[in-house]
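Tutorial, part two.
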Amino acid sequence: MSDWTDGYLTDVEYAHAYNKELNPLVARLALLVAGLSPPRFGTACELGFGQGLSINLHAATSTTEWWGTDFNPTQVGFAHELSAASGVDVKLFDESFADFVHRRDLPDFDFIGMHGIWSWISPENQALLTDFIRRKLKVRGILYNGYNVVPGWATFAPIRHLMVEHAALSGAAGGSKLNVLKGTLEFVERFLATNPAFRRYNPLVVDRFDSIKGKDPHYLVHEFLNGHWRPSYFTTMVEALAPARLSFACSASYFEHYDPLNVTAEQWTLLQSVPDGPFRQSLRDFMINQVFRRDYWAKGAGRLTPLQQAEALNAERLVLISHRPKVELKIRAPLGEVALHAPVYDPILDLFADHQPKTISEIVRAMQGRSVSFKQVVEAVMVLAGAGHLASAQDEATTARGRPSAKRLNDGFLERARSAGDADSLASPVTGGGIAATRLVQNFLLGLRKGRKTPAELSEFVWQMLESQGQKLIREGQTLETREASFAVLMPQATGFLDEQLPILKSLQIE
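Running the prediction step on this input gives:
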């Protein structure tokens, strides 16, 4: 009897995660900066959509028609709940890749996305997906692929193997995968504490283990205890996708478009001595010890002339999604902490302080007389977007069309946030995707809808809601048992929400 899971874990739900790289608007800006012509994203497909947050957020806030599959029925059920809430007919299926890729009703796609799927499926399924992309991705279409990369995982791969073997032994007696994971993490910690030769020859393995053991257990189970787990070299990925007639377009990680944020001057000189192509990308992965690549691939990429590129970039709209006074002029990039040049970045941030969308051409005009070039403006926009301060914005007509369904979807999120905090995004018709919003922020929004307007009223609303369910706030690992202790936390949070977060949410048409 065959195993329908094909080595992939299904008895533990995947984390409720939103991935912005699956947003065609994010892809559009990256492609334009790379000098490539993006397609019109009319149809899109997400393979392995997990809980369905990304596919539903993108479908509810844009005019793109979305299709997708995930063979965990529990997760697909939740995705259907989100689709029903928004009222958008998202084509969601609980089929294996082998079944889904041969459906006769599938359209051809402008965009296909798979985040964290390739590294966790069998070689047979990888071949199925490559053939599917070959057949169903349109000419000039874009593939997004997020996958584990060997340089960053080379040291830890043996520990992952050890974890799988231990989990297999301890799981044989039964018990949940989450309990098995807990025991496995404790065992590996004990093993490393014995100071084995493996640790001495690979001293950074302890830091890597410490960095992963505190992550969401649902994520860790899927990341490390699957039957398949194969980090790839970039050049191996090029070979794997060649039958689909794809070529590497650019990184979906905006920082990686600018080498000074990633490599030293000496490393850059070496990179430039190597012809631009797969080997240079692979060499760069070794230089930065790349763990996870986020790549866009194109089927017959269309090159833009410098004039076409400049005109297209000038028309791009962006919006500030951070509170301007708290935006620090430094970022954490692969090379480390980088200070941003205040004479360039401060005026741009000030221009966006009203949280209204602006085109790049508007930024360029505002920077006239400051000796800031068009190229510097584009770089600043990419850096601020990569740091999570700016986001691409849709045109006003598309925003207006997406607003009703985005509001309905947000209604569903706010209702869920009354009792659960697993879905930490809300839908913005301005950005065509998700905006981070904790359970507390969502509860404050719900309180506003019910007429609570002051910090004290919002704090009382949230506290009573938690109290009625027997839930408590936790601060620095300590459970807050009293109303007074809870209010000491809630009041400043509610004040910050009203003063800083709410104006941004309103500008993003999240209400």
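Residues 483-507 form the longest helix (25 residues). In part three we will examine how such features are distributed along the chain.
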